[in-house]
């Protein structure tokens, strides 16, 4: 087991009828005015927006709104929100939406307190030293951003999709009400499942073995699989919705990586090239394609891990690593996720371009160090 | 799944050579002088004390020492330490030891900032409203106190062993170096295993079913069982020691009870009567006796949970609840834990006295509400 420091100061407020409590939490922290950051309007349809506004009013919290954060969020929107936050003298950011909104809000929270270009945090030119307090209401369980310090944003000008991580942008309070997700489109559920499973697998296959964390990680993955299947048939099953939501939070709040090497994020890095080149590719859909391809390329580094995965996740006794990987792909197919680059609309000639973009991060990887050539081969397998 | 708020602000610093970092953490938080609270002297034998002192000196942190916290810690020692902390104007408490030392330190941290009698927190007469910052170096993995707000202390005068819980006494930083536990006596390892397994089971059997938490809880229990067996043969096996330590922390830091009803703490309450009447009874040893007796008395409330427990922990297919309970008792026997009150030195006539003490907390319990009579019957089964 590797040495580690676990510190997660986010207060997770989880369950039914919790959205309407946000005003109380803000008031308790003496917040007078928030920037409410949101996406394309789904929170008006599912009733979340109305509950938030009522709760803010009841607790005497003013707000200014910025709308239009899109999936695979972009830098220009972040900059727009930073400028509004500065001009309006808000004292906290309130993100209401899915991973894109919360990730953008983290950049806003840090950017407001930084003189330079907020992209510096993503490019690695600067480290976050402070941030405005951030509060979040999660409406789409997938990325785990509600309980960590990670933010991923795309720079539309350079086609770079980069991330930063900082203790200063952990939400102070994150509200997760599984009921607000009853009306999510099925493909968002599926993409969320794939994304969260991938987060756990990045740790599971980073070359370290921690027996307790293995049991936890296998438990998270199995719970996501079981509940996804239930929810595809029965979207308003509360217990399934709640277990799914909680699993996706734990998939990336530090617990799933305890004692590990920090995870092998190659698949995520390669996937980011897909959605940078084509912003219509959902992150989860991209991962369903890239992750099994990565596994096929690297499993010989630790075949016994893949055998354990096959046995403990899929009940395959004495399987070969390839069988475990195929079982994962088959399950992705079963729930309606794409499994090839072709299905995502990419053409063979795109492989070169994707390799180009992904290789900006090379060398990458822990289980196997990947250079440009390795990345290209993985993309070919994925095609 | 029940609604919940998860908030755990303790920074867990885990791994090899971490004890010597304590001074840096204190310095970073601007602590100038600590009250170092310790037990009977084992930290001088295992080298922990020397490392702590060196680290404090190197970081310019003054200290005043209070020694002599004993297993099943007592109120008089807490009061002595509060008085020293007040007179010496320390600005933080540093607990170096096992659960008794850290539990006592929590009372000191809260007591220093309270005008009344610190016992008020235990009796329920007062709530903790603030506390001095608390830092901990754990030398015996068992109770989970290093990452929660619980404190259990015995009032020697009234023979009451009561607890309080407060967000204000979560340690700011807890250091867990598994290597310092290489020299622990085997019975302390065994008692720690039983205590931590019991913590998980209190949630597991509280009448709520949360599929993700079930998988996590079963993973914690199985990891404790596997690593205990390894450590009884090979006390310096780092991976086993580290997985054991991490499991005991997660057993009571909130993760094992996610979405549950707060746990059914009847067995703990009944056990406290044992060690209140005879302070030489270790908490873990008492639990090894009481918990299976409680299970036998209550399993008919939720037989399917006990069947699941038997299958997922012990691999018993289609077992009866009693078989699952017996498997647990058998495993306790196997590792050298007592399984009857007789083995703990109690006599048949003590049952009445134990019932008397435990019944002060009655009615208690969630899976089944226990009155005085029920408690007596459980103690009879335990005898």
From TrEMBL, chains A, B:
Residues 9-178 form the Alcohol dehydrogenase iron-type/glycerol dehydrogenase GldA domain. Pfam families: ADH_Fe_C (PF25137), Fe-ADH (PF00465). SUPFAM superfamilies: Dehydroquinate synthase-like. Residues 190-383 form the Fe-containing alcohol dehydrogenase-like C-terminal domain. One of its GO terms (molecular function) is butanol dehydrogenase (NAD+) activity. One of its GO terms (cellular component) is cytosol. This is NADH-dependent butanol dehydrogenase a.
